[in-house]
Design brief:
InterPro entries: LeuE-type (IPR001123)
Subcellular location: Cell membrane
Pfam families: LysE
Distance between the termini: 34 Å
Number of helices: 9
Number of strands: 0
Membrane topology: Multi-pass membrane protein
Radius of gyration: 18 Å
Protein name: LysE family translocator
Length: about 210
């Protein structure tokens, strides 16, 4: 693989990953709400979901899936409903007053790591855009003359970039300044997060016939 080809693949993935979306917003909000470790666990789930689709794309399975409209429709509906469920949870949180002055969640609101990890995985697996994105990335990075280690270079490099991006959001937004900002604007931030989830979920449901 040429350097320009690798740069194109990594650049495309980096732009897609850093663009605002439900996963990024969820990691940012979790970092400000609960701190660095819970946000990193959520980010790990998102990366795992991305790796799932990356492996399927590398083996050609996701290309087969995209050929079956019914499979994509089912995935869009499931992903849309899950995002709407997350939107309702964020809306309920926005209406609560269950945070102390420091902006840290009360003891009974402390997140469970397994649940956070599962949320990150499901957010990405339930997003059919991830399938199409990985198919596009693989088509950019792999050619007939590509070396046998080509898929490993594409998947490995992109997953590493994903870890840096999502982990970076978790670290950046868990700083004291961001936590203090969340303490002041918690209800507004949760409201925006609810709106992002709701819009993304409704868009998936609206796309189910396409």
């Amino acid at each position: 693989m040429s350097a320009s080809q690798i740069a194109l693949v990594y650049g495309t993935y980096l732009i897609a990953t850093t663009s605002p979306g439900p996963s990024n917003m969820a990691i940012m909000a979790r970092a400000m709400r609960s701190g660095r470790r819970p946000a990193l666990v959520l980010a790990a789930g998102v990366v795992t979901g991305s790796l799932f689709w990356a492996i399927l794309a590398a083996t050609g399975v996701s290309a087969v899936l995209t050929a079956y409209a019914q499979a994509l429709v089912a995935l869009k509906i499931a992903g849309g409903l899950y995002l709407l469920w997350l939107a309702s949870r964020a809306a309920k949180s926005a209406m609560k007053r269950g945070h102390d002055a420091s902006g840290v969640a009360l003891a009974d609101e402390q997140p469970r790591y397994r649940s956070l990890y599962r949320q990150g995985v499901l957010m990405h697996i339930g997003n059919p855009k991830a399938i199409l994105s990985w198919v596009a990335i693989m088509s950019l990075g792999l050619r007939e003359q590509s070396p046998a280690q080509g898929p490993l270079m594409v998947v490995g490099g992109c997953v590493l970039l994903g870890m840096l991006v999502f982990g970076g959001y978790a670290i950046l937004f868990s700083t004291p300044a961001m936590v203090a900002l969340y303490a002041r604007l918690r209800r507004g931030i949760e409201g925006v997060l609810s709106l992002v989830f709701a819009v993304a979920g409704l868009r998936l449901l609206a796309m189910r016939g396409g």
